[in-house]
Design brief:
Blueprint: H1 25-40, H2 47-76
Helix pairs in contact: 1-2
C-alpha cells in the first residue's frame, strides 16, 4: 500500500482523545432507530418523526444509565 495503512493490522488512532468514542455511539443509535421504525411504521411518512423520538429516547437512556453506573462506582469506591 502506498499510504502504509493496513486495516486490522494498524488501526487508526481514534482512542488518543477519550471524549471521541462516545460520539461514535450517536450514528449507531440513529441507524438502529431508523431501521427499527422503518420496519414497524405503517406508512413511510411517519418514519422520520418516530425515528427521531426513538433516537432521543435511546440517547437519553444511555446517558442516564452511564450516570447511574458512575454514581454506583463512586459509592462503591
Amino acid at each position: 500500500m502506498a499510504s502504509g495503512y493496513i486495516p486490522f493490522i494498524y488501526p487508526l488512532p481514534i482512542w488518543t482523545n477519550p471524549w471521541i468514542w462516545p460520539l461514535l455511539l450517536l450514528p449507531l443509535c440513529l441507524a438502529v432507530a431508523v431501521v427499527y421504525k422503518s420496519v414497524r411504521c405503517s406508512t413511510v411518512s411517519r418514519v422520520p418523526r418516530e425515528a427521531m423520538g426513538l433516537f432521543i429516547t435511546i440517547v437519553l437512556g444511555m446517558i442516564l444509565t452511564a450516570a447511574a453506573l458512575a454514581g454506583l462506582a463512586a459509592i462503591l469506591d
